[in-house]
Specification:
Blueprint lengths: L1 H4 L8 E2 L5 E3 L2 E2 H8 L3 E5 H18 L4 E5 L6 H9 L3 E4 L2 H10 L6 E3 L6 H10 L3 E4 L2 H13 L4 E6 L25 H13 L3 E7 L10 H10 L8 E3 L10 H4 L5 H15 L5 E4 L3 H4 L3 E12 L3 E5 L8 H5 L6 E2 L3 E2 L5 E2 L15 E7 L8 E9 L6 E5 L20 E5 L2 E6 L14
Parallel strand pairs: 4-21, 5-6, 5-12, 6-7, 7-8, 8-9, 9-10, 10-11, 11-12, 14-18
Antiparallel strand pairs: 1-2, 2-3, 4-13, 13-14, 13-20, 15-20, 16-17, 18-19, 21-22
Helix pairs in contact: 3-11, 4-5, 6-7, 9-11
This protein binds pyridoxal-5'-phosphate.
Length: 443
């Protein structure tokens, strides 16, 4: 039963005999006490295992494939260092992400640059750094990049981002492969762009790129995308298949999540069958490398009952915007009193302030943040074991696009990132300091 309760938790997670969550061999409640809450906790072994799984799966199916981490999912130095050490490249989407990737130790030859509205400064930074590739997203950028590279006497390797007009099953906010998209060029425009790049002496065309969306749990869509771009691949060396594999946020999703092995096999097979053997394959997963490795710890501040039960914690939309942006669904648990689907409770701990109300052992509650928005609800309908003020609550699978989108709304101090493994914990990003809230104010 314990294994099922931990189906979406990082590798190696366990419940102790008295029902306390252990992450990377560390007690979750003790982590909360030591580092404060909210806090992102990353299980290093899980992160490394996922990066390695990608490297090995593509090496098996397409030796020489270029697999990169989409750093937008978690542009944190320590995370990038683990991924770099596993031999992956890095995809960046601004000159800020480029700087972080270089700071983390990625060689420029292993970095490629995205962005649907790149500025001249973004392009200049990419060319000056000597990045492996710039992925051109539109005609204005093509002209601008040709000029930036020519001004510097450089020949910049590029790919062209194509929108193949296929739709994966995912939230509209993270669906990008449809024709009516702000990203990339449609098939006909891409054909024109290919000709134009070939005529630019300061650009060298490597190939094409597509990214059809994120949090995809169904693999068939990739074959449809490959089929759509295949007629454009004549004479081109590389096709970047854009990442996008989902993660299981809930036990229900865990049951239908494709493995990295199946994902790589399907993508490579589609390219080999529809385009041929000579094309170099590239891919750039983000979420599925870092998502499961991370969890967030919060402390309950208040429990309120009206039509619903509201469990208010010390974080929210400043550390996890996804529920508000994409109706993203999460699970939650009190770290030392897990609720089972049957309504039982594993463990009985918790130094929470006892509530005078006798409440049922497991309640359905909305886990809410502390921000001044009604939409600031982290988990609707969470099943929590008699939650009370002072409890530490965990939301699993927050490693991707949590820290990445964190902000200081309502003057909250952005949360630290804590790496755990082998029973030890170390802070790799400290909590924001209060004076940093006005550090840029000059008036
Ligand atoms: C161009 C591009 N590549 C790769 C990714 C990574 O997608 P995922 O995190 O779903 O693997 C994204 C995510 O938005 C993207 O925009």
């Amino acid at each position: 039963m314990t294994a099922d309760l931990l189906a979406v938790y990082p590798l190696g997670s366990a419940l102790s005999d008295d029902g306390r969550l252990q992450l990377g061999g560390c007690d979750a409640r003790e982590l909360a006490e030591r580092f404060g809450t909210p806090a992102y906790v990353v299980v290093e072994d899980d992160l490394r295992a996922q990066a390695r799984a990608y490297r090995e799966a593509f090496d098996r199916h397409a030796p020489g494939a270029h697999v990169s981490f989409a750093s937008k999912a978690c542009p944190c130095t320590a995370v990038l260092r683990v991924i770099e050490s596993e031999g992956l490249g890095c995809d960046v989407a601004s000159r800020g992400e480029l700087a972080v990737a270089l700071h983390a130790g990625f060689a420029p030859e292993r970095i490629h640059v995205h962005g649907n509205a790149k500025t001249e400064a973004d392009l200049a930074a990419a060319v000056d750094a000597g990045v492996r590739q710039v992925v051109i997203d539109g005609f204005d950028e093509l002209d601008r990049l040709a000029r930036v590279a020519a001004d510097r006497g450089r020949v910049q390797p590029v790919a062209i981002r194509v929108t193949p007009d296929v739709r994966g099953e995912t939230h509209a906010g993270i669906s990008t492969g449809q024709a009516d998209s702000k990203f990339g060029l449609g098939i006909d425009d891409a054909r024109v762009a290919i000709d134009r790049v070939r005529r630019e002496p300061s650009l060298r065309l490597d190939g094409l790129h597509f990214h059809i969306g994120s949090q995809l749990l169904e693999l068939g869509v990739y074959r449809r995308a490959v089929a759509a771009v295949a007629p454009l691949m004549d004479g081109l060396d590389e096709l970047n298949l854009g990442g996008g594999l989902g993660v299981a946020y809930t036990a229900e999703q865990a049951a239908r999540l494709p493995t990295v092995e199946a994902y790589a096999a399907e993508k490579v097979a589609a390219v080999r069958e529809l385009i041929g053997d000579r094309v170099r394959i590239a891919d750039e997963p983000g979420r599925s490398i870092v998502g499961r490795a991370g969890v967030t710890l919060y402390t309950v501040q208040t429990v309120k009952r009206n039509v619903s039960t509201w469990v208010g914690v010390d974080g929210g939309m400043a550390d996890n915007l996804r529920p508000m942006l994409y109706d993203a669904v999460y699970e939650a648990q009190v770290v030392d009193r897990f609720a089972t689907p049957e309504g039982d409770v594993v463990g009985g701990g918790g130094a929470g302030e006892r509530n005078a109300d006798p409440s049922p052992p497991v309640v359905t509650a909305n886990l809410t943040g502390m921000h001044c928005e009604s939409s600031d609800v982290l988990v609707r309908g969470a099943r929590l074991a008699s939650p009370r003020s002072g409890d530490v609550v965990v939301t699993p699978v927050t490693g991707a696009y949590g820290y990445a989108m964190s902000n200081s709304y309502n003057g909250v101090l952005q949360a630290p990132v804590v790496f755990v493994g082998g029973g030890t914990a170390r802070e790799v990003v400290r909590r924001q300091r209060i004076e940093e809230l006005w550090a840029r104010d000059i008036g």
